[in-house]
Each structure stands twice: as C-alpha cells, then as structure tokens.
Amino acid sequence: MMVIFIVVLGLGVVGWRMYKTGKLQEALVQKLGSRVFEKQEEMNLVYQALGFKEPRTYLVLFLNNTEMRPGGGFIGAYAAVRVDKGTPHILKVEGTEILDNRAPRNVSSPPPEALKKYLYIERWNFRDSNWSPDFASSAAKAMELYALENGTAASEITGVIGITPTVLQEVLRLSGPVRVGGELYTADNVVQKLEYEVEYGYARRGISFDDRKKVLADMTHALVSRLRYDVFRNWSKYLGLAGGMAKEKHIIVFALEPDTQRVLMLKNWAGTMKSADGDYLLWADANLASLKTDLAMDRELSYSITPTSSGRAVISAGYMAKVKMKYIHKGKFDQFTTRYRTYARVYTPMGTVFYKVKGSLRNDRTTDPGTVDQGVENGRQWFGAFISIEPGKTGELEWQFYLSPRVSDQIRAGTYKLLAQKQIGTIANGLTLNLNFGKKVIFASPGEPQDQHGDTQYRIAADLREDREFEVKLDD
C-alpha cells in the first residue's frame, strides 16, 4: 500500500503517460517494493493491485476528519480511479452530495437508527456509509450504496481507499506550499482554506454549487506540478510518510480480493477491528451535524478496572470497568464551529455486561438523560449514546460494565492483555489506564514509572496516535 501511494503520487508526472507498456512504472515498483515486502507473493499482489496484469478500479473516499465519523471522517467527496500498468486514469471526482441527489428515487436503504433519530434521515446515503469503525465493513457498505446510486464504474470496483486531510497536510509539510486559484496553501492552513472554499468561497468566485469541490481537482494538479521531481528525488521521505500515515490510519485500504486483503491486514494497513485474545477497547465518535467542530475538540480517554469487591475479585462477578471520554471544546460559535453533537460507541469483548452510563443526553436541547443502545459488531459488544458539548465547555461520557468472564478468568490466571484501537482519522487522543487487579503486578509492558512498582495497580499515560497494546503479569 505504501508502494501504491508513492507510485500514484508520482503518476502522470515527468511524462509517465508516454510509457504505455508500463516498463518505467514496473521498474519503480520493483525498487520501492523491495524495501517494503520480503515475500515475492506480496510483490505479486502489488503488481496486481497496480494493474500490471489487468486494469484495477478503485473507489477513493476523502474522509474529512474535521467532521468525524466512525469510519474515519465524513465522506465529503470521492473519486473513481482506474489504474492500468501503474498509471491512474481518473474516471470521476465530485462531492458525495451530488451522487446522493442523483440517486434513483426507488433506492431503498434504511439508515442506522442513530442517523434516523438524530439527523432525521430516512435513506442511508453514500456519504454516510462509513458508519462502522471497521474500514472493511464501511468499505463494503460504501460499495453497496455506490452501486445502488449508479456510481461511475460501480461494477468494476476492486478496492476502496480512504484518505484524510491529514495526509495532504503532511505532504505539504514535505513538499512546501502550493498556490491554487491565487491562494497559498501550506501545511498549517490547507484544511481550513479548503473548508472555506467549498463552503463559502466558491460563491464569491462565481462557481456553481455543483462545481464547488473542483478546488480539490485543482489542488491535485498543483501538487502534481510541485511533486514532479521532488517525489523521485526524495522518494524515501515520501515512502516513510506513507508508512506513518498508514500506521496512524490516515490512509486505509480495503481489497475485494481475499489474498490482497490478507496482506493489507498483516501490514496493518486495512483499518480493521483486530482480533484480540484479551481485553479490547475502541471508542468511536460520530459528529452529527456539528459542522467542522472536530477541529476545536480535544479528547482524553480513560479506562479503569477494579475487583467487584474490596480485595480480591469475586469469581462469580469478576471486575467492574469504567471507560470515560472527556471532551474539551476549545472553540466558539462561528461559520465552521458549533456545539459538538456526537453519537459515541464503545466496543468491548463479547460477554461484557452493561451496568450504567453517565453523561448521556436525550438531545442537545435538554439535560434529560439519553437512552442507551447496545449491539454486536464484528464479534464485539458495543454500547452507544448521544452527548452534546457547548463551545468553551467540557463534557464527559462514562460507561460502566462488568468485564467479560473470559477476561476476568485471564486476570485470575495471572495475565492481562489489552488492545486499545484508535478510531480511524483521529490524531492522538489521550489515553490513561488505571487498572486495579487486586493482586500484585510483577511485570508490565509498557512499564510503569519505577516509583509505582510493587502494588496491585497498573497506571500509565499514553495516546492513541496508533493502536496500542498492553500486557501485565500478576502474582498468583
């Protein structure tokens, strides 16, 4: 996938379309691929993905993480791209609202209950398709709705690629600023400037609503011009950038072909909910009509467990867990910022038993407690609720539940493992663990500060810039 990113980034530059046989492209793939893949089987899949055997068509989702959705960010725009012998051919680029508004009237696609309840929509639109925090699930739904709405080359799609604006920021940080339509775009202002252009600036320029996102295509052309030689002179830097963006889930890929998807998951480029043989935690927010307020939000996630009685755990009940998200709204009401309305879900192992929730709201116009939803997805138990935070304020949503019996049994047997997965598109939410096992901790990875050794608790502060794994060994 990193190879694909570099190749596509350099495609069309320095006259690549002159090389109809794809020999130049193939040579570059071989050079870059040897740095990433150890097995020839994996290289063969890269050649296949880049259309050296037969053309491949991809649905590219632009995931706006200033408006978070469970699968990475609101899908404000998309592209259909065919790759043939390493060279991309753009079939379509437009705003998702155009495709949704063009959809046949007889399309029937009931939306998730939360979208229906809080946004009052009756049809599941393509732009809302990434409702799952598991990218494979969201990609499959995106392909389904794209086909229902008669998207370009829908029957030919072989994979889905998700990209957040964070990638554009980091590319500009490497390449330097670019000028588009008389405006200078830098790594520090590109997200805000693009938001302004597609929401307000287009009218000032005399551009129609349907063409307002043409600035994205103009930005692409400007980047291609800037990167014409830079990407080849500094390919190792761009390769490192691609790897970092994939690890941090700002570039994610889904492939219909099972062997390719297996490699993507092995390399941690697929954005899937991973299997875990111990405890598991994933918090997913869904910005519901809160403009681009995620730019103004800081988040701090804390997770604690305690035995259900003083001292050692009661075998029949085990351990009580609390997971709390603290939302810090640093903004004020303006054209891009409003109160933050989110439908938040926490994912835990199967067998987790809900106890209670604190901080949920019925809606953003009342302080009445909200309802709690529960469900199962990808072999995980989830709980969901709504909360709203006013500008300049702090809000908290806390779940309490009994740990899965399987996890409690592992603790009693002397081992605890936790996989904490980040939500696709988030930057580096804070993560604090305070885990009381009721028995002495004898080993932990990552380790605690030395002055906290020797007791029954594991305390550590980290972040969710990427997925995190923790392991604790306990005295019998």
Automatic annotation (TrEMBL):
<protein>
    <recommendedName>
        <fullName>DUF4012 domain-containing protein</fullName>
    </recommendedName>
</protein>
<dbReference type="InterPro" id="IPR025101">
    <property type="entry name" value="DUF4012"/>
</dbReference>
<dbReference type="Pfam" id="PF13196">
    <property type="entry name" value="DUF4012"/>
</dbReference>
